[in-house]
Design brief:
The structure is a single chain. The chain is globular, with a radius of gyration of 12 Å. It has one domain. It has helices at about 1-20, 30-50, 55-80. Helix 1 packs across helix 2, helix 1 (about 1-20) packs across helix 3 and helix 2 (about 30-50) packs across helix 3 (about 55-80). It is an all-alpha fold.
Length: about 80
C-alpha cells in the first residue's frame, strides 16, 4: 500500500510542478513520471539536509520540490 501512495503523491507532485514551471513541463504523462522520480530526489535531498517530512502533506512537499528541481535540470540539459 505504501508504494501505491508513493506513486499517487509523486504523480500529483509532478502535475503541480508541471503547472508551476509554466510551459517547462513535458506533457501530462511525463510530468507524472518526473513527479515520481522527483519524490525520490526530494526525499533524498531533504534527508541530506536533515529535514524530515511526515504524512501525506510532507511527502507531497518533498516530492513537489524534487519534481521542480528535476524539471529545471531537464530543461537545462534539453536546452543544450
Amino acid at each position: 500500500m505504501n508504494l501505491l501512495w508513493f506513486i499517487i503523491v509523486g504523480a500529483v507532485a509532478g502535475w503541480l510542478a508541471g503547472n508551476v514551471m509554466k510551459g517547462k513541463g513535458f506533457g501530462f504523462l511525463m510530468n507524472l513520471i518526473v513527479g515520481i522520480i522527483g519524490g525520490f530526489l526530494g526525499g533524498w535531498l531533504f534527508g541530506q539536509l536533515g529535514i524530515a517530512f511526515y504524512g501525506i502533506i510532507g511527502s507531497l512537499i518533498a516530492a513537489f520540490v524534487g519534481a521542480v528541481i528535476l524539471l529545471f535540470i531537464i530543461k537545462l540539459i534539453k536546452k543544450k
